[in-house]
Amino acid sequence: MRFGLIGDIVGRPGRDMIKQILKDIKTKHKIDTIVANSENISNGFGATNKNINEMFNSGIDIFTGGNHSFDKKDDYKIVLQNKCVLRPANYPDEIDGRGVGIYDTHNKPFAVINLMGMFAMPVCDNPFRKALDIVDQLKKKDINTIIVDFHAETTSEKRVMMSLLKNKVSAIFGTHTHIGTDDLIVEDGTMYVTDVGLTGCRDNIIGMDSKTPIEKLLTGVGGHFKVQNNCKKIFQMVVVDINEQGIATTAKKFKIYDDNDIVITDFKAEI
Ligand SMILES: [Fe+2]
Ligand SMILES: [Fe+2]
Predict the structure, then answer these.
(1) Which of 23, 132, 143, 206 satisfies CB 3.0 to 4.6 Å to 138 for a cystine?
(2) Using CB atoms within 10 A of its CB, is residue 88 exposed (0-12), middle (13-18) or buried (19+)?
(3) Could you tell me the distance, in angstroms and rounded to a whole number, from the CA of residue 8 to the centre of ligand 1?
(4) In whole angstroms, what is the distance from residue 235 CA to residue 222 CA?
(5) Residues 66, 27: contact at Cβ < 8 Å?
């Protein structure tokens, strides 16, 4: 199976890039399933049901989430009822939604796990212990194709997750920092990237208008971050091939700019 993995889609500029580009790429590169992070799709904070459906109609099949999944107070309960919309699995059980999805839209079932880190995040269950437990349960059900979105702030947390899950899951893609990293690798059957990077505005501060973050850091005081609608945009996605046994074989990183520059980097499995 071929999966496309998209990081944080930030606001209208991010949604516009998805609407303009994704269906064509999905067809042209024969991608079976697209997984993307939803936590910033609506105005940069949370996800409305309307925007989730708009993105499903634009080629996304499964959404993960993060620390902003609950920001749209009126909509998140509806959004998280959808089996194809996840939130981090290490939130407590009494919180709405689910953190693991098992899907059987193709010949063999596959699973998507959404986890959130510990540094600068809400206090939740230990994501590393949770990851090992969930993977163990999935393996008992004979599910070997497993995709993990690890939504975390620090590179070290993400590398620890890679070391723990290497050879046990098919792919780990990092989200949350909004800045794409240059460390895509396929090792011991597992694809890993610290962060895919955002889809949305590329010429300001992590997809948000620069004015407020600068003010806040210069003075300690400032308002709510806003998504700027007039900006230079980028679309970022990792594409990974996973065989019948759940082993990742090759991966590519796509970076597509709204002014038509395209950068595709190929990676082959290290054996
Ligand atoms: Fe985010
Ligand atoms: Fe986040």
Answers:
(1) 143
(2) buried
(3) 5
(4) 29
(5) no
Which residue of the set 68, 151, 176, 178 is catalytic? 68
Nearest by Cα to 14 from 175, 216, 249, 250: 175
Name the band, by pLDDT with cuts 50, 70 and 90, for residue 263.
confident
Tokens encoding 234: 């980028």
Per-residue pLDDT at 45 = 97
Question: If one looks up domain 2-268 in CATH, what number appears?
Answer: 3.60.21.10
What would the two tokens of residue 18 be?
Answer: 């998805």
Q: How far is the CA of 141 from the centre of ligand 2 (A)?
A: 30
Give the alpha-carbon dihedral of 36, 45, 180, 27, to 10 degrees: 30
Q: What is the DSSP letter of 125?
A: S
Active site annotation includes 68: yes
Torsion of CA 6, 10, 12, 17, to 10 degrees: -30
